[in-house]
Write a structure and sequence with these properties.
By secondary structure, the chain is α+β, with helices and mostly antiparallel strands. It has two domains: 2-196, Beta-grasp domain (Ubiquitin-like (UB roll)), CATH 3.10.20; 240-477, Uridine Diphospho-n-acetylenolpyruvylglucosamine Reductase, domain 3 (2-Layer Sandwich), CATH 3.30.465. Helix content is 31%, strand content 21%. The protein is globular and about 70 Å long. The termini are far apart. Bound molecules: flavin-adenine dinucleotide and FE2/S2 (inorganic) cluster (2 copies).
Length: 477
């Protein structure tokens, strides 16, 4: 039985826990405001808000209901457009109307939901139109929503209008302010206490035992095999307390496997270690997918271009695997045995990942190139960590995606840099070893030659981005 709040209603359903929230709200609750577009997380027509208590605060995140299993709704507040509608238009809906942001209306629900989510969770570190990769946070909040007929300028104006109206409003008691100003219906103020009447939303360890499929955020599984997942036996790990959390211990950073890309992006510890973290994670999928997709899912999916995998391979990370309470630790780079073949038993799950925290004088860089800047998988991605001892490279770790059957840790290339000083000759020499180590193939994302050239340039880019370096591109080519 799955129990959760759906808009202003308490739900208890015996439906299979692999049923998507989209199918549940449309076909079982007849809430047809939530639309079906792609069913692959790409269009945002099915966007919902998902509320839960995080560190004592009620927080809402946008998610794509087409990829979210009912198991991940357990103990949460699921909000569809019907749960946002009031007698009058909300300021979000009004702004879209005023700016001419809707025509056929198919996508409009998703935009309203995402922008309402933005008003509830306006980043505290930003004011006004401070930019995230040149995009205002309000516009960034609709990065997972596609409109086929209106044109984005009117939607951007609507987003800007909403940002202007809400940016200076209180961050404390935000829900109260949003209700008083008709952004949200009044029942939102009762949600917190109604959570307490629901059964515990965390899952016990025994759910990791027995047969079944481990499910993190479902953003790979429900794209790859939606029919199978609908009736599959599910071992949900998204909400397990033991698999969440990011902390430092003994000079290492430890990250639970169920931590999402958004959790990584918002982690003060991760931000302190990687000053460019926001820009890097911003290149991964879209806001709703980052709110769902987990680190463990990215690693186990074993896509040769998995962004988080490439990021953590270059940190020379280790993973902790667990089978029925028996744990073992493995270097992430030894996890990948061949195309989608892992050093992992079927009933083994990743519990956490950890890496030695680089020193401030070390260099880390991540690069990704796709056909579109946002909401696209990489053609090629790469990351590089240089651990420095003065001017000498004590250790180098280079990873690359899209250039082989697995996410690649470039062992020989990394060894080439060890004990050397950074200069153009070394970078060119390492670049040549990289070309020997990789084996890209021509496909829809580019020809072999293109991918080889791209990785060469991205690798050079890692050095050009370094602070205090005196290298010039001309020296490298
Ligand atoms: C629209 C869209 C855009 C995307 N863009 C990107 C992108 O830009 N970059 C990118 O890298 N990825 C992207 N992805 C892929 C996906 O979002 C990520 O790979 C994500 O991290 C997967 O995590 P998940 O929790 O959703 O995985 P799930 O779908 O839940 O699981 C994936 C696999 O991992 C297994 N699994 C999950 N957690 C564990 C665990 N702890 N232990 C053992 N097995 C586990 C599952 O059984 C399954 O086999 C995108 C996906 C979509 C739908
Ligand atoms: S239907 Fe397109 S993202 Fe869900
Ligand atoms: S208004 Fe028609 S798809 Fe956006």
């Amino acid at each position: 039985m799955t129990t959760f709040l759906l808009n202003n209603q308490t739900i208890q359903t015996p439906l299979p826990s692999g049923t998507t929230v989209l199918d549940f709200v449309r076909y079982h609750k007849h809430l047809v405001g939530t639309k079906i577009g792609c069913r692959e997380g790409d269009c945002g027509a099915c966007t919902i808000l998902v509320g839960e208590i995080e560190n004592g605060h009620l927080r809402y995140h946008s998610m794509t209901s087409c990829l979210m299993p009912l198991s991940n709704a357990q103990g949460k507040h699921i909000v569809t457009i019907e749960g946002l509608n009031m007698e009058e238009l909300s300021p979000v809906q009004q702004a879209i109307v005023e700016e001419g942001g809707t025509q056929c209306g198919f996508c409009t629900v998703g935009f309203v939901v995402s922008l309402t989510g933005f008003t509830m969770h306006q980043p505290t570190h930003l004011t006004g139109f401070e930019n995230l990769s040149g995009v205002s946070p309000a516009i960034a909040a609709i990065d997972g929503n596609i409109c086929r007929c209106t044109g984005y300028k009117s939607l951007e104006r609507a987003a800007a209008q909403i940002a202007q109206k809400t940016v200076d409003q209180p961050k404390e008691n935000r829900l109260q302010w949003l209700v008083e100003n008709h952004y949200l219906p009044h029942y939102f103020l009762t949600i917190r206490e109604r959570f307490e009447a629901l059964p515990d939303s965390t899952f016990s360890k025994k759910q990791n035992k027995g047969n079944g499929t481990f499910v993190g955020g479902g953003t790979d599984l429900f794209v790859q095999k939606p029919e199978t997942m609908a009736n599959a036996s599910i071992k949900p790990i998204f909400d397990q307390k033991e698999l969440n959390g990011i902390y430092e211990a003994g000079g290492h950073c430890h990250i639970g496997a169920a931590v999402t890309a958004t959790d990584l992006q918002e982690s003060p510890l991760m931000q302190s270690i990687f000053p460019k973290l926001r820009q890097h994670i911003k290149l991964v999928s879209s806001t709703p997918i980052r709110n769902m997709g987990t680190l463990g899912g990215n690693l186990v999916n074993a896509s040769p271009i998995g962004d988080l995998t490439i990021f953590f391979l270059a940190l020379d990370s280790s993973i902790v695997l667990n089978t029925n309470g028996n744990k073992r630790t493995l270097k992430l780079r030894h996890f990948y045995k061949g195309y989608k073949t892992l050093d992992k038993a079927p009933d083994e799950y990743i519990e956490s990942i950890f890496f030695e925290i680089p020193k401030k004088t070390d260099h880390f860089h991540f690069e990704k190139v796709c056909k579109r800047t946002h909401l696209d998988i990489a053609s090629v991605n790469t990351a590089c960590l240089l651990k420095m001892d003065g001017e000498t490279i004590q250790e180098a770790h280079i990873s690359a995606g899209g250039v082989g059957p697995v996410p690649m840790y470039l062992e020989r290339s990394s060894a080439t840099m060890k004990g050397q000083k950074i200069n153009a000759d070394l970078i060119k020499k390492t670049g040549a070893v990289i070309q020997e180590e990789i084996s890209p193939i021509s496909d829809a994302r580019g020809t072999e030659e293109y991918k080889r050239l791209l990785l060469r340039q991205l690798f050079f880019g890692c050095f050009l981005e370094m602070e205090n370096n005196e290298l010039r591109l001309g020296e490298l080519v």
